[in-house]
Amino acid sequence: MQIHQSAEDYLETILMLSQRMGKVRSIDVVNELGFTKASVSIAMKKLRENGYIAVDGEGNLTLLEPGREIAERIYSRHRLLTHFFMQLGVDEKTAAEDALTRLHTAQPELALRSVTLTAKEKVCLHPDAEGHPACLPELCPYANGYYERLKDALADLLDSAVPYDRAALTETARRHRVCPFELGLDLSEWCDVVIGDYNYLFDPTVHLRRFFDAAGDYIFLIDEAHNLPDRARAMYSARFCKSSLTDAKRTLGKGKSALKTALTKADKLKKSQLAKTLEDFENFCRPYGCQKVVLTSGENGYGIPELQAVLNAAVAAENEEAE
Hints:
By secondary structure, the protein is an alpha/beta fold.
């Protein structure tokens, strides 16, 4: 007998709650899933009528053999087959979505949920005047009251059979007036496969804390892995450009201030004045194994020959070791 994917979720939840609590009632399912009492009541009735669960006089839910078999299969799959497709670029993302579509076409009975995470800047429904996401509740109607409408949006998606790609998330977000980016993140906890950029795994600032701040049984498929070194340098290396001082001073606008005066002095540093700064950097970095620090400025034209000399010396040393 075919069973709807949302019904599988209910059966899996009953199994998990029974392992955790022993006895399970409908209200426990409500609290666990965050759905309304009415929707859970209707679902329990259908499961009981189809022979998946039994309900005793005190309202305790028990999985019958067909229901337990489905629940254990789904629970095992969720524990062992949570995949994260970490890739870079639209082409790879499309390829991952196409691969999952092929899986569903080849095995229609395969209950495998996937969600594609897209950068907030690309899916924002209420950007500011400069086109950036305005994520404060007082500025964005999709952020204001988000959690009040989240449950219905999730239920809408989980009851549908469409792939949870950018288009599906955006359409659902518009209908329920919730942030599509946050909706995708919350939906990811209900999915077996998460397709997203490298930074959702590796970037210390934006990685998915809901998954990676605790141990889990995950499999990572990292496409275009040759791009990882450059991306890792960008994620974990601090960078400061002298031009930032000029930009900061310009942002302050007209008029005098102590901060503006300090920025002006710093902005006028000459190459000869960088010696002390260079020494400070080297002293700071040496405990971390750094042997050489080179300060460069393409804008002002200094440091580039020094950097080239360091690189040439490193290549020469490596060639000597190889010989």
